[in-house]
Write a structure and sequence with these properties.
Layout lengths: L1 E5 L2 E5 L17 E6 L12 E7 L2 E2 L5 H33 L4
Antiparallel strand pairs: 1-2, 2-3, 3-4, 4-5
Length: 101
């Protein structure tokens, strides 16, 4: 984890762009950061909060602990759906390869 700061704002970001050896790693899709911006115009950014970057420059709004818990639960539901869809895809590919349609 790398700590970054701008003035009194501090964020901890989990980086996934480079491996330990410095070579390019898989691109990140879910990139969380915890920050506090005491001089922000938005009150929710003045207290510790989480934002999640899905792709470069695509962020969620600031989330307090309760909102972040809801986000995690929703994300877990999507992961379960993706796992089910993956199983269906594996079955469909196997059927296609065996000549079944």
């Amino acid at each position: 984890m790398a700590a970054t700061g701008a003035g009194r704002s501090v964020a901890w970001r989990i980086r996934h762009r480079r491996t330990a050896a410095g070579s390019a790693a898989e691109p990140y899709w879910v990139h969380p950061s915890i920050s506090t911006r005491p001089y922000a115009l938005e009150p929710e950014e003045g207290v510790p909060h989480v934002k999640v970057e899905f792709d470069e420059d695509v962020w969620t709004p600031p989330m307090d602990p309760a909102a972040f818990a809801v986000f995690i639960d929703r994300l877990a539901g999507h992961v379960e759906h993706l796992r089910n869809l993956h199983a269906q895809l594996v079955t469909a590919v196997a059927a296609h390869q065996s000549g079944e349609q």
